[in-house]
Amino acid sequence: MRQLARGRLVLATHNQGKVVELAELLGPHGLEVVSAGGLGLPEPEETETSFTGNARLKALAAATASGLPAIADDSGLCVDALDGAPGIYSARWAGAAKDFGAAMARVNAELGSKPRTAHFICALCVAWPDGHAEVVEGRVDGTLVWPPRGGNGFGYDPMFLMAGKAQTYGEMSRAEKEADNHRARAFRQLVALLPAVAG
Ligand code: ITT
Fold first, then answer.
1. Which of 8, 62, 103, 133 is deepest in the core (most CB within 10 A)?
2. pLDDT digits (tens, 9 = 90+) for 118-137
3. What's the mean pLDDT in 172-177?
4. What is the pLDDT of residue 195?
5. How far is the CA of 180 from the centre of ligand 1 (A)?
6. Could you give the domains of the chain?
7. Ligand 1 interacting residues, C-beta cut-off 6 A
């Protein structure tokens, strides 16, 4: 089994919300995180058709370009009544201006009076410069509220109510959201796969 040695790891994302959550998850594991943006790495086009495929593509691109192990996150909001949309297109629904107010309004408009169950998915991939890669996926279920509530977090957080919670991710503190969300669930699987990270 491939081990992840303590040392430098590229965080292969250009999304600041993910950088914050992933840095927090990686922090206790003795890994020095450098960002893809900081290394001037280009943002690859997401040409795959699954979260795991795109996470693998982004991690491999960053590992190959930097010569360091890299971790990438591909995630999104999947709405049951919309056949899983926006799904892997969650970032693209916000357009070039990254307007998630508009993306949330589109989700709400397309939903109308249909059932409002949804889930977040997060695929995490660690890749090495030699092309080896490990990928995992975490999921959290909930419902969508309208209007959006709260200004914390990022992306679709203000309209997502995790099952059993009274506050949306947009209303929760960072610690509360990160305790058990799709990213944390995926990360726990990665730690189990890569024992050296667990120390
Ligand atoms: P990178 O590819 O550079 O990592 P990105 O924002 O383009 O950044 P994705 O293609 O994986 O990343 O898009 C995922 C989108 O799904 C993201 O922009 C958010 O809008 C949404 N999303 C994922 N996780 C989320 C979370 O925890 N809370 C709210 N929205 C989330």
1. 62
2. 999 999 999 999 999 999 99
3. 95
4. 66
5. 17
6. 7-193 (3.90.950.10)
7. 13-15, 18, 43, 46, 58, 73-77, 90-91, 100, 120, 153-157, 169, 181, 183
* pLDDT at residue 5 greater than cutoff 70: no
Q: Is the pTM of this model over 0.70?
A: yes
More confident residue, 147 or 5: 147
Mean pLDDT of the chain: 93
Q: Is 83 a catalytic residue?
A: no
Q: Whose C-alpha lies nearest to ligand 1, atom 21?
A: 76
Residue 169 and residue 158 in contact, taking contact as beta carbons nearer than 8 Å: yes
Distance of CA 73 from the midpoint of ligand 1 (Å)? 8
Ligand 1 centre distance from Cα of residue 81 (Å): 20
Map the chain to HEC letters: CCCCCCEEEEECCCCHHHHHHHHHHHHHHCEEEEECCCCCCCCCCCCCCCHHHHHHHHHHHHHHHHCCCEEEEEEEEEEHHHCCCEHHHCCHHHCCCCCHHHHHHHHHHHHCCCCCEEEEEEEEEEECCCCCEEEEEEEEEEEECCCCCCCCCCCCHHHEEECCCCCCCCCCCHHHHHHCCHHHHHHHHHHHHCHHHHC
